[in-house]
Design brief:
- With about 280 residues, this protein is of the alpha+beta class.
- The chain is built from six helices and 15 strands.
- It has two domains: about 160 residues, Probable tRNA modification gtpase trme, domain 1 (Gyrase A, domain 2, 2-Layer Sandwich); about 70 residues, Elongation Factor Tu (Ef-tu), domain 3.
- The strands form three sheets. The chain has a six-stranded antiparallel β-barrel with strand order 10-13-12-11-14-15.
């Protein structure tokens, strides 16, 4: 239980953003680590209280969801985009039937802060620039947020600069891990053994036949939506997988897009008057 005084005295987490588009799943049971080992792209046997970015693929090696996973005591937690929680539960249901593992919706409120968080059990450091607050008491989460709120676009910009893609319903099942740069983030293990889709992922890695790669983009005009086609002369050459506004809140910002390798021409986004350029 987190006491109010513990949160009130948390100096390094004074400014936080409410990440209400994220949701958690809690895995429990005597086989939980073995079960996750067969589905996470990272090594589930190496999970601890520090979150690790990871993914779950389908049998074709396409990424169903991305997010952070960690293990505390008997419970493993997977944090993912809220739009994918029902689909992932349905996806895992037939596999859970053969394991002594059960899964339930998490109830924690998720907030994000920039910089280094305090050394408290509810603080999860993602990298030197970002941390999460995982709070079971919603009233305390709301109190903390109301005291000093971080602009959500600041959190999203830091995530884009990290080249970290949180798949959503519009982009689930479309990309190999390498297309999302998960191998470059250390979110794919090529030594841990078999997991769902592993043969396809390993073959793409060793043969180098990945024709689309993640790019940081700048945009001007209307903020492109996740899942929007990236066009060149009316032809699709990629897909927008994340976007946010610049710090001044104008008609410009940053995005992540999965683009055909080697394409250098002018770009636009479908469904809006938006120009895209590769960020330097």
């Amino acid at each position: 239980m987190i006491e109010e005084g513990e949160i009130a005295g948390s100096s390094n987490t004074a400014r936080v953003a409410w990440l209400d588009d994220l949701a958690s799943l809690n895995f429990n049971g005597p086989d939980v680590v073995d079960f996750l080992q067969g589905y996470l792209t990272t090594d589930a046997a190496a999970l601890d209280v520090e979150p690790r970015f990871t993914a779950i693929c389908n049998i074709k090696g396409r990424v169903v969801c991305t997010g952070y996973a960690w293990l505390e005591g008997p419970t493993a937690t997977l944090l993912l985009h809220r739009s994918l929680r029902p689909a992932l539960l349905e996806f895992l249901r037939p596999y859970l039937a053969f394991s002594r593992t059960w899964v339930a919706d998490g109830s924690a409120s998720i907030l994000g802060g920039l910089g280094t968080g305090d050394a408290a059990s509810h603080v999860k450091q993602l990298d030197p620039g970002r941390h999460l607050l995982v709070l079971e008491d919603p009233s305390l989460a709301e109190e903390l947020r109301s005291r000093a709120e971080l602009e959500r676009s600041a959190w999203d910009r830091a995530t884009i600069e990290r080249r970290e893609v949180w798949l959503q319903a519009e982009t689930s099942g479309a990309f190999l891990p390498q297309m999302l740069g998960l191998d470059e983030l250390g979110a794919v293990s090529f030594t841990k053994g078999c997991y769902l889709g592993q043969e396809v992922v390993a073959r793409a890695q060793h043969r180098g036949r990945v024709k689309r790669r993640l790019n940081v983009l700048g945009w001007q005009g209307v903020q492109p939506s996740v899942g929007a086609e990236i066009l060149a002369d009316g032809r699709q050459v990629g897909t927008v997988v994340a976007a946010t506004r610049a710090c001044d809140g104008g008609d410009a910002g940053k995005a992540l897009g999965v683009l055909q390798v080697g394409y250098t021409g002018p770009l636009s986004a479908s469904g809006s008057e938006t120009s895209l350029i590769r960020a330097v």
